[in-house]
Amino acid sequence: MGLRIAFLASEVEVAQEALAELTRRYGHVPPEEADVIVALGGDGFMLRTLHSMVNHPAPVYGMNRGTVGFLMNEYREDGLIERLGDAVQEIINPLSMTAMDRRGEVHKALAINEVSLLRAGPQAARLKVSVDGRVRMEELVCDGALVSTPAGSTAYNYSAHGPILPIGADVLALTAIAAFRPRRWRGALLPSNAMVRFDVLEADKRPVMADADSISVADIDWVEIRTDPEVRHKILFDPGHGLEERLISEQFT
User: Fold this and answer.
1) Is 211 a catalytic residue?
2) Per the UniProt record, which residue ranges are transmembrane (predicted)?
3) Residues 207 and 132 in one domain
4) Which residue range(s) make up the domain with 37?
5) What is the per-residue pLDDT for 233?
6) Which residues line the annotated binding site?
7) Looking at the 3D structure of the chain, how many domains does it have?
8) Domain check: are 87 and 111 in the same one?
9) Which residues are annotated as a binding site for NAD(+)?
10) Do 219 and 244 have their domain in common?
11) What is the pTM for the complete model shown?
């Protein structure tokens, strides 16, 4: 029996065209029957695919039909079976977010890239930051803050001047977004098993929203973030173009 492939594509025209051509060449099976899932789109679509396929054993191989494509491989129509056979697998453990809003409702979500807190009004947010139950910062005044995985460290975290993390570093990045006080605080590197808690101060006056890979919760009171070792996202990359190489290359561009 040949390799069973499930093709998934974003709604953009170039991804849909790729979907039609690749399914014509290589066939297609439902994701639950697939040996491998091929995602056609950009990084955002790849994240959605990984979230939706979290309970499926098949790894995901992305081909870039978007813009940046940090999590994707180069798009080529020829030789796909050989590329899949040679691909290198990376395992990513996502972040688990637990957030309680001001109504007392608890929300849970997973984030492959980052969990971010963002001010939702005209005034800066005021956050108390705790790590593993110990208060580390009584007050962080900022536009927001985020906790990033190594896989997500070149995304929003990097735009907020956070560090790029090698995949094998076994750490998380805690990064402030436009910090006002302490003005020169550069963030922190934490063990990957750390539990980070943000308490929103003056939540009625300075509303804050939480976002886990675009899953948003409004008017939060507190958020707890930790790595979920039980969830394993399997991503395939062409040899020499895995996440480790991409993270290193990004720092020299």
Assistant:
1) no
2) none
3) yes
4) 5-92+232-250
5) 92
6) 43-44, 48, 113-114, 143, 151, 154-159, 178
7) 2
8) no
9) 43-44, 48, 113-114, 143, 151, 154-159, 178
10) no
11) 0.85
